[in-house]
C-alpha cells in the first residue's frame, strides 16, 4: 500500500517511483530482524535496563529541541538526523513509558491506589507531555496519555482517580486547542467540514472522496485517483483512505478486522502472562497500537479532527514501523511464558 500510495509522489519529486517503497522495505527488514531478536530475550532480563532507558529517552526528547540537533519538517521539530536517516524520539517514548510504568507499578502494586502514588505517575506523564508538546506533537501526547490510562485501569487504579485524570486530560486538550490558532482552525474545519472544503476541511473532504469512490470492492490496487496530489499525506497519515479507495469497503474492513484480531490477542497475552510485569507490559504494548489505530481511522473517516498520527504497520515511516515491530517482538516474548 505504501508503494501504491506513494508511487506518483516518488516519481514527481525523486524521479523514482520506488523511492519511498525502498526506504520502507529497509526499515521493515530491520524491524523484523529486531522483532526476532527481542522475541528471544527473556523480558524479565530487561528490567535492570528500564530506568536508564527511560532517562535516555527523556534526554532524546530534550535533544530534539536543540537547534542543529533536531530537524524541522513542516513546522514541527520531531526528528533527529543520523546520516541520511532520521528517527523520531516520540516513537521511542511510547515504548519507554510502557516499560517504565509496567516495572514501577509491578514493584509496588498498591502505590497506584493512593493519591500520592497516582500523582507521582501523573507528574511523570506531565513531564513527557510537556516535552512532546514543545515539538509540537499533540497526537503522540494523546496516544501516550491514552496508553497510560489503559495501563492504570489494568493496574487497578481507583475509578475516582481515573475520572479526575480523564477530566483533566480533556480540559488540557481544550486549552491547547484554544491556545494554538492552527489547532483551533482544525476544530472549526471539522465542525463545519463542507463549508471549509477548500481550506481547513480540505484534507478530510479529500479523504472522504477517496473512501466514497472505493465503494464495495474498490477501484483496484494501484488505481487510486486521490494519490495524484489531491489527498495530502496519502502514504503516511491518510493511507487508510487510499486502502478504502483502491480495495473498497471489503479491503478497509479487512484491515480493521486485523487490528481487532491483534488487540484481542494482545490482551489475551496480558491475561495469561505469568507475572504482573509481563501482564502490564502486554497491556501497554497492545494499547499503543489500539489507541493509534482508533485515532488514525477516526481522522480518516471524518469522525475525529485531524491529528498527526500514522496507522501502525501500514503508514510510511521507518521509526514508527521499527518500534511497532519491536513491540510485537516483546508481545511474542511474553506469550512464550503464558500460563495454560
UniProtKB/TrEMBL annotation:
The chain crosses the membrane at residues 20-38, 50-70, 90-107, 114-132, 138-155, 162-182, 238-264, 276-295, 315-334. GO terms for biological process: cell division; cell wall organization; peptidoglycan biosynthetic process; regulation of cell shape. Pathway: Cell wall biogenesis; peptidoglycan biosynthesis. The keyword Glycosyltransferase applies. Coiled coil: none annotated. Keywords: Cell cycle, Cell division, Cell membrane, Cell shape, Cell wall biogenesis/degradation, Glycosyltransferase, Membrane, Peptidoglycan synthesis, Transferase, Transmembrane, Transmembrane helix. It is a multi-pass membrane protein. One of its GO terms (cellular component) is plasma membrane. It is an enzyme of class 2 (transferase). The keyword Disulfide bond does not apply. It catalyses: [GlcNAc-(1->4)-Mur2Ac(oyl-L-Ala-gamma-D-Glu-L-Lys-D-Ala-D-Ala)](n)-di-trans,octa-cis-undecaprenyl diphosphate + beta-D-GlcNAc-(1->4)-Mur2Ac(oyl-L-Ala-gamma-D-Glu-L-Lys-D-Ala-D-Ala)-di-trans,octa-cis-undecaprenyl diphosphate = [GlcNAc-(1->4)-Mur2Ac(oyl-L-Ala-gamma-D-Glu-L-Lys-D-Ala-D-Ala)](n+1)-di-trans,octa-cis-undecaprenyl diphosphate + di-trans,octa-cis-undecaprenyl diphosphate + H(+). InterPro entries: FtsW, FtsW/RodA. Belongs to the SEDS family. FtsW subfamily. PANTHER family: CELL CYCLE PROTEIN, PEPTIDOGLYCAN GLYCOSYLTRANSFERASE FTSW-RELATED. Peptidoglycan polymerase that is essential for cell division. This is Probable peptidoglycan glycosyltransferase FtsW. It comes from Desulfonispora thiosulfatigenes DSM 11270.
Amino acid at each position: 500500500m505504501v508503494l501504491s500510495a506513494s508511487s506518483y509522489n516518488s516519481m514527481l519529486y525523486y524521479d523514482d517511483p520506488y523511492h519511498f517503497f525502498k526506504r520502507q522495505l529497509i526499515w521493515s527488514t530491520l524491524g523484523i530482524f529486531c522483532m526476532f531478536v527481542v522475541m528471544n530475550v527473556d523480558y524479565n532480563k530487561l528490567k535492570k535496563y528500564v530506568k536508564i532507558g527511560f532517562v535516555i529517552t527523556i534526554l532524546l526528547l530534550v535533544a530534539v529541541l536543540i537547534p542543529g540537533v533536531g530537524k524541522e519538517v513542516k513546522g514541527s521539530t520531531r526528528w533527529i538526523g543520523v546520516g541520511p536517516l532520521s528517527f523520531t524520539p516520540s516513537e521511542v517514548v511510547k515504548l519507554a513509558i510502557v516499560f517504565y510504568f509496567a516495572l514501577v507499578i509491578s514493584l509496588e502494586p498498591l502505590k497506584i491506589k493512593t493519591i500520592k502514588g497516582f500523582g507521582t505517575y501523573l507528574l511523570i506523564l506531565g513531564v513527557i507531555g510537556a516535552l512532546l508538546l514543545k515539538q509540537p506533537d499533540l497526537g503522540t501526547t494523546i496516544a501516550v496519555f491514552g496508553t497510560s490510562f489503559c495501563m492504570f485501569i489494568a493496574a487497578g487504579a481507583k475509578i475516582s482517580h481515573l475520572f479526575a485524570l480523564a477530566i483533566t486530560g480533556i480540559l488540557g486538550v481544550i486549552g491547547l486547542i484554544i491556545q494554538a490558532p492552527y489547532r483551533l482552525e482544525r476544530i472549526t474545519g471539522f465542525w463545519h467540514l463542507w463549508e471549509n472544503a477548500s481550506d481547513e476541511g480540505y484534507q478530510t473532504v479529500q479523504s472522504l472522496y477517496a473512501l466514497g469512490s472505493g465503494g464495495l470492492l474498490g477501484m483496484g490496487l494501484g488505481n487510486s485517483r486521490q494519490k495524484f496530489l489531491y489527498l495530502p499525506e496519502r502514504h503516511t497519515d491518510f493511507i487508510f483512505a487510499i486502502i478504502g479507495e483502491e480495495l473498497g469497503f471489503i479491503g478497509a474492513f479487512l484491515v480493521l478486522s486485523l487490528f481487532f484480531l491483534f488487540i484481542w490477542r494482545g490482551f489475551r497475552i496480558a491475561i495469561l502472562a505469568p507475572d504482573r510485569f509481563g501482564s502490564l507490559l502486554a497491556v501497554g504494548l497492545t494499547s499503543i497500537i489500539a489507541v493509534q489505530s482508533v485515532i488514525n481511522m477516526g481522522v480518516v473517516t471524518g469522525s475525529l479532527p485531524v491529528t498527526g498520527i500514522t496507522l501502525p504497520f501500514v503508514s510510511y515511516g521507518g521509526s514508527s514501523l521499527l518500534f511497532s515491530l519491536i513491540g510485537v517482538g516483546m508481545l511474542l516474548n511474553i506469550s512464550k511464558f503464558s500460563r495454560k
